[in-house]
# Entry
Amino acid sequence: MKLLLRLVAILLALVVVLALGGLGYLFLALPRVGAAQDVRVEVTPERVARGKYLANHVAFCTVCHSQRDWTKFSAPIPPGNEGNGGMVWGRTEGLPGEFKPGNLTPAGLKDWTDGEIIRAMTEGVSRDGTPLFPLMPYIEYGSMSSEDVLAIVAYLRSLPAVSSPDEEPFTRELDFPVNLIVRTLPKPATPTRVDPSDKVRYGHYLVKIGSCEACHSQREGGTIVAASRLAGGAELLVPNGATVRSSNITPDPATGIGAWSEEQFIARFKLYENASAEALALPDPRQNTHMPWMNAAGMTREDLAAIYAYLRTVPPVVQKVQTFEGATATGVTR
Ligand code: HEC
Ligand code: HEC
# Structure
């Protein structure tokens, strides 16, 4: 009996030591990311132009980090609000906490060094060392080419300092156990070398930094279900309370976009370039969408063609998705 008690005591002690060791590891050794680089990004007109293109039309920074008008289709950003801080995402959207994409204009980032911005963007660690929740797509941006990263920083530095109109006090919250798990996610960036003449690979790169997969795949416990990759069906809550489901963009001809020509694919995006007020009207608020059409429409035809080429190479998945609730689609071909 005595021996048994002693064994139990030893086992308990072991469990406590392991648990403390685990916690110590989580808090002291993680996130596994070094100090911010000591860099100063040279702001050239070329970089600002490239950064503006990427941040607005490809990597969609401003889609999350700006005030948007959800009374219009695909919630355009009223001009002048680019990067001034986005809406709060939280438990209502099924997330384990409350998060706010901050102000990326100099009004928000004036005290940040270029290196700190780069580290937050590509490795997922905030200025004070806090690991970011991966709704911020730093895992994807970790493979952004070094020059594209510098271009985005140059663009953010060139923005006018604009504060967001709804400066309500906001406290970030992260629920257990995600507050521990999130510490394991940040990792050193692994920049890609890009070559736009390699169409399929460049298309893959754009799909990655465009977070297409994040919305166009279903998840289980936060992780993308491999078999549903790009096959849509993810339910996304629109701010007015409606639900939109992402489309199947795999090359299945019947339920995906396999029957679309390259020209049709490009035209689908260009439909929203300089969209008229009529095209943006929202007769049925249930038919609003998280697909960032207004921003994605600004992608170049070449980049859209590269995305199309890549999407032709992914495994086709048979999955029919009804994107909008109820009612037949109205307005522009949607
Ligand atoms: C899908 C939405 C989304 C996109 C796209 C996005 N972000 Fe974020 N970002 C967030 C959220 C949410 C946070 C806060 C996360 C947290 O508190 O853990 C954040 C945090 C940040 C931070 C840390 C400072 C802060 O505001 O909290 C920086 C810097 C940042 N993002 C830059 C960028 C840049 C640059 C891009 C484009 C290359 C980008 N983000 C794209 C959602 C997004
Ligand atoms: C924030 C979430 C989100 C992101 C990011 C996103 N999509 Fe979408 N997408 C949607 C939703 C939701 C729909 C369905 C509703 C609609 O048509 O607006 C959709 C629809 C589409 C359609 C129309 C398909 C059809 O059958 O009509 C295409 C094509 C598309 N997305 C391609 C892309 C590509 C390529 C990317 C990456 C560059 C991307 N999407 C990124 C949410 C997203």
